[in-house]
Amino acid sequence: MVIEDLYPSRTDSTARWIDRHDPVVYAKKGAPTTALTQQQIESFEKKGFLIIKNVFSAEEIEDYNEEFQRLADDPILGVKEEFIQEPESRIVRSIFAAHTFSRKYQALTEDPRIRKKVEYLLDEEVYIHQARINAKPGFSGKEFYWHSDFETWHVEDGMPRMRAISCLITMTENKSYNGSLMLMPGSHKKYVSCIGKTPENHYKNSLRRQKYGVPDEESLEALYEECGIEVAECPPGSVILFDCNTMHGSSSNISPMPRRNIFFVFNAKSNRLEAPFGGTSPRPDFIAHR
Amino acid sequence: MVIEDLYPSRTDSTARWIDRHDPVVYAKKGAPTTALTQQQIESFEKKGFLIIKNVFSAEEIEDYNEEFQRLADDPILGVKEEFIQEPESRIVRSIFAAHTFSRKYQALTEDPRIRKKVEYLLDEEVYIHQARINAKPGFSGKEFYWHSDFETWHVEDGMPRMRAISCLITMTENKSYNGSLMLMPGSHKKYVSCIGKTPENHYKNSLRRQKYGVPDEESLEALYEECGIEVAECPPGSVILFDCNTMHGSSSNISPMPRRNIFFVFNAKSNRLEAPFGGTSPRPDFIAHR
Which domain holds residue B204? Predict the structure, then answer.
């Protein structure tokens, strides 16, 4: 069976802009919910992201930070593939799939304060496609270049359609000076294909520093002209929901304050992964649960 | 003759905090001026910097940008030591001493809209200690780690006292997302010595990426606790004045928009350079005019 690829990428020597074929908000317009306000839903549809402050209490966040530290300091866990270090230091940059070895993070993936919002927007039951804690340590946290997550998940993991939402839970202050998430509002409605082919086992380096699967500078300039950039500054305990195709990135962090966030990706059950559209072998389970 | 070193640095294996021995504002309190308001003067004294918007017109700034491009594109000038490239690309990151080979920049160093402000604050005639254009290109502009300029100018150039002011003229939008100047307000009243000794010819690498003469992380954490961080967001044509000892740095720039600023350092004539306090040979004239 040949499946038509609606979102081809990394197949060509020039970038293509493709209109989004999928809804952003899957719920019927005006469908009642207590999970989100109508204004929040409209804003998510328009901008491709939504920032909600004060969702988690200071005590809860302290708890998640302690659990992070316990994991990061564990010498036995530390050798697992799930632990990613900064390119120029040995400091833990990300922990993948913490919910598979921490009960606290497992429970958090089920928290109705996030799940109900996501399930409303996607109008379906969801599962965890990817989970990680992004530590971005102080003094030496490196930037993360512009990308659409969907582009990677489609090409490298075989996610068929745009029916997934990322949920960030802020564990420290996210300020403009410590490498906050930066988003291009409205960019989720265009799909910008990337130039070039993906090499095998690309994920091993790309988690530390990206080289492939990044948009070209000309496309980014045009998107920036159209959308601008919004810096997602917010206090600890906030939730940032963003569509899988929203163009985003983050600057380096030379400030003394780490910018640490929990990152869960919820995918609609009907949107389960197939064979990667780029033709490479599937990435390991801790990066893309199947 | 032995000159006592009031601000020793890079001599020890631990950092020392020394109280500032010098005034911040040298003008007599309340001395009349049309160059600055009393509020601006007080703010500069307290925070160690001052942001003034709309000092230069859009036409003037366009003119300086064109002149920058002309210089950056000149293949003959491009090989000069004054032209500094980004560590990982060949893009021009800084041009030093442009006022020595560009009439436009030479004239700008004399502009009363900046000179009168600086001469009031330092209560003396001044000269250019250092001049540069900091280009910080889009997509790949690298961060500049925390430092007090005075620490370097004292140790490597022999600047005796804190009686110099840096003046930034913004040539593009300076946004929090394109690597704006970040300052720690109030940090100019403490001198934080750096750990370790300076190697010979250190400047050749330090202009591209710093390794020596940077404060230790513990001191930066303490300073941050006390002072916080302010991001100097402002439109093109603004002027940012900051004291030579204000702790500052900047993040990387992955946004498509370059963050380009003209940077002049004015030193009081009575504060002319002596032999470097660190005991190394003086740096070349284009970095520290004598």
Answer: 65-166+185-247+257-290
**Distance, CA of A95 to CA of A97 (rounded, Å):** 7
ipTM of the complex: 0.90
B222 phi, psi to nearest 5 deg? -65, -45
Amino acid, res. A44:
F
Using 50, 70 and 90 to split pLDDT, how confident is the model at B198? low
List of chain B residues whose C-beta atoms are within 8 Å of the C-beta of residue A247: none
Q: CATH code at A165? A: 2.60.120.620
Neighbours of A117 (CB within 10 A): 24
**pLDDT on residue A13:** 80
Give kind and range of the element (H or E) at residue A103.
Answer: helix A103-109
Residue B29 in any domain: the answer is no
Query: Are residues A177 and B253, on separate chains, in Cβ contact within 8 Å?
Result: no
**Directed axis angle between helix B112-122 and helix B38-47, to 10°?**
60
Yes or no: say if B228 and B186 are a contact pair by the CB < 8 Å rule. Answer: no
Measured between beta carbons, the chain A residues lying within 8 angstroms of B146 are 254
In chain A, the number of structural domains is: 1
* Token pair listed for A120: 């409303």
Q: pLDDT band at residue A199, thresholds of 50, 70 and 90?
A: low
- Cross-chain Cβ contact B254/A146 below 8 Å: yes
Report helix, strand or coil for A136. coil
User: Would you say residue A276 lies in a domain?
Assistant: no
Rounded to the nearest integer, the mean pLDDT of chain A is 93
Cβ neighbours for B23, distance < 8 A, ≥ 6 positions apart: none
Burial class (CB in 10 A: 0-12, 13-18, 19+), B87: exposed
**Closest by alpha carbon to B166, among B190, B142, B187, B150?**
B150
Q: In the A/B pair of chains, how many CB contacts fall below 8 A? A: 65
CA distance A153 to A191: 13
Which strand (E) or helix (H) includes residue B84?
strand B83-85
**Would you say residue A93 lies in a domain?**
yes
